[in-house]
Amino acid sequence: MNIETIIFLVFGITAVVSAxxxxxxxxxxxxxxxxxxxFFTVAVIYLLLKAQFIAIIQVLVYMGAIMVLxxxxxxxxxxxxxxxxxxxxxxxxxxILISILLALxxxxxxxxxxxxxxxxxxxxxxxxxxxxGRTLFTTYSFHxxxxxxxxxxxxxxxxxxxKKKFE
Amino acid sequence: xxNFNDLKEIIPLIIIAASALISLLIxxxxxxxxxxxxxxxxxxxxxALIFTGLNVTKDVIIISEMLRINPYSNAFCMIxxxxxxxxxxxxxxxxxxxxxxFGEYYSILLFAxxxxxxxxxxxxxxxxxxxxxTMSICFYVLTGLLRKRMKSNESAMKYFLLGAFMTGFLLxxxxxxxxxxxxxxxxxxxxxxxxxxxPMFLIGLALFMIGFFFKIGIFPFQMWIPDVYEGAPTVxxxxxxxxxxxxxxxxxxxxxxxxxxxxxxxxxxxLATLTMLYxxxxxxxxxxxKRLLAYSSIASAGYIMVGITSMSDLSIKGIAFYxxxxxxxxxxxxxxxxxxxxxxxxxxxxxxxxxxEYKGLAKRSPVLAIALTVFLLSLAGIPPFAGFWGKxxxxxxxxxxxxxxxxxxxxxxxxxxxxxxxxxxxxxxxxEPEGETSGEAVPVKALSYAAIMVSLAGTLLFGLYPDLFFxxxxxxxx
Amino acid sequence: MxxxxxxxxxxxxxxxxxxxxxxISGKIVGPRFASKGKDSTYECGEDxxxxxxxxxxxxxxxxxxxxxxxxxxxxxLFPWAVVFKEMGLLAFIEMTIFLFILIxxxxxxxxxxxxxxxxxxxxxxxxxxxxxxxxx
Lengths: 167, 478, 136
Fold this sequence. Notes:
The complex is a heterotrimer of chains A (about 170), B (about 475) and C (about 140). Chain A is an all-alpha fold. Chain A is about 75% helix and about 0% strand. Chain A has a single domain (about 5-80, about 120-160), classed as NADH-ubiquinone/plastoquinone oxidoreductase chain 6, subunit NuoJ (Four Helix Bundle (Hemerythrin (Met), subunit A)), CATH 1.20.120. Chain A has helices at about 5-25, 30-50, 50-75, 90-115, 120-125, 130-135, 140-160. The N and C termini of chain A lie far apart (about 65 Å). By secondary structure, chain B is mostly helical. Chain B is about 75% helix and about 0% strand. Chain B has helices at about 5-10, 10-30, 35-55, 70-100, 105-120, 125-145, 150-180, 185-190, 200-215, 225-230, 235-260, 265-285, 290-310, 315-340, 360-365, 365-380, 385-400, 405-430, 445-465, 465-470, and strands at about 60, 65-70, 340-345, 350. In chain B, the strands form two sheets. Chain B has a two-stranded antiparallel ribbon with strand order 1-2. In chain B, strand 3 and strand 4 form a beta hairpin. In chain B, helix 13 packs antiparallel against helix 18 (about 405-430) and helix 17 (about 385-400) packs across helix 19 (about 445-465). The model of chain B has no long low-confidence stretch (mean pLDDT about 85). Chain C contains five helices and no strands.
């Protein structure tokens, strides 16, 4: 077992555990903090996949900006801690079973799809900001502009719905 | 790489994008009245429609193979543009009536249109994703536009959460397909597909389709439709159920037909049957016209699914025609509902959307009643109207590809659907009006009137001369 | 062999370990005598009032929303800046259009007054008594 496998195992297991903890916690703030941990571990897994730029963006945008928004919403809603004991209904158990099944299905398909394959030379360099910039502004130039439109639509929509009243 | 020649091919897309930006600026600086932005966006959509119509036979793959401009995509694009155009015509009066006539509404609608066109023209999964997201985000916003109404807020929230969840499925599917084939380009994936029917690819494809089935409203993913269409502003529901469906179907169908998944025909037919069953049976017990139209939209998704199941060029032709007819009749019905609809005194709920309030509409406003009757009969598939030919072509394609039992079920369920459409018609024509506003005519403004007339004309024109469509889109017949 | 990020990882492990050792050793070694006064929140000698869950002003949320979208813009700006020299004019034009699209959003938010912060209106005490006025 080399060092990368060890790092992957540590962070992979942390990612799964923190995701489960995030879903099961009663207090939304604690959930949010587990989500931060989850984002971080996922960022490390991106790094292991040689996707450095995405890893940095994961930390900057998700752990930074999006978590701020999450916490804002939680504070805005003014939730009180829910002290009701958790109930195990039929719905919940079915949901858990289905999600485990889905996870198994996806996991096995990905595992057998990539089994024995190695990352090639090109793929190792593709995650840097330089190569990303090069493809983004040549091959994917249309997508950059379309993404601009998407972001603009999101700004307008958010501002429109969030305003207290229209003049 | 974008070069100048490529830009010439996507003029309609550029018109829509630019007019979305400009209309936003106009909306900001013409504070109170929505008029300038309204006229501007109406003209922009019309211009885009004309440009697409002029270049409808183009067949090119441009911008690093990211966009595919061909007759199929042009046809679907024109249907979507037409739907948005009619929606625009009807929107102004409706929004003014409810006091939400903001200029931004029109720019958001243009953004949604940009998303739809990007999606239909897409030849790359990333393009599909960006287009779909642009469209969906605009739809979430438009659904929640009536912020005073609890139902509108609730439906926007439901739509947003489910939509975001389903986008996750779609994206995961795309990444699995990319993992299995090594391409995001749809043409290349389709070219290599026969060589790599791996489980990873198939699961990826299934997740990809789930994302689209959600947008179209195929059976296990249809639960959001009634709530969302009921809560959204009525013209927006009409637009979502027509243009949104056109965009999703237009993106998915060329892919599915080329893949030719004959071994999964059974699965598709079961989904089609269940969708039609659910839509038509649950619609029987509705008493709210908006919900009824929502269930009828699920039923139509089922008919489209019958077309998808037959997987031939004939079925593309049928689906395209059905969608065109569907734009006229479904949107027309929603516009009539929007004209009649009103808000309760406190502005927190809808009024005039249940069947009881439609009693005696024929006496109050005969024109509205005639229009609605035509739309509903067309939706039911009664012969002289466009809806009949749409169903006819789809079922014909199904029979041609040995799906006789499926077409028999579809026809039987269409017959059942006549019952609930007729129920509304009976309420309008053969019952006495009730309530305090019983005798008065329903006030109709000129623009909504024009929108209804356009839909009515379309329903009748394509009902009497279905060949018109195929003369224009000659290429759809091979 | 360690990559550059491997060094970052080692740095991280050491820093986490450093903090962890300090905290844990403090817990183990330090003497602890719990009492009621010691556990209570200290706020300048006053007893605390109300909940720690304070409801935020809604306006922060709108600002945060707009911030996120411009934060996502950085995702596109950064790779562009890295390769700007070799890409030449086309990339520059593209980025100009991209920025223009987003600036329209900024103009929209600005013109709609979402970035405008309502300032508190100080209540200026008014005197109705005529005596002082006439004296002035």
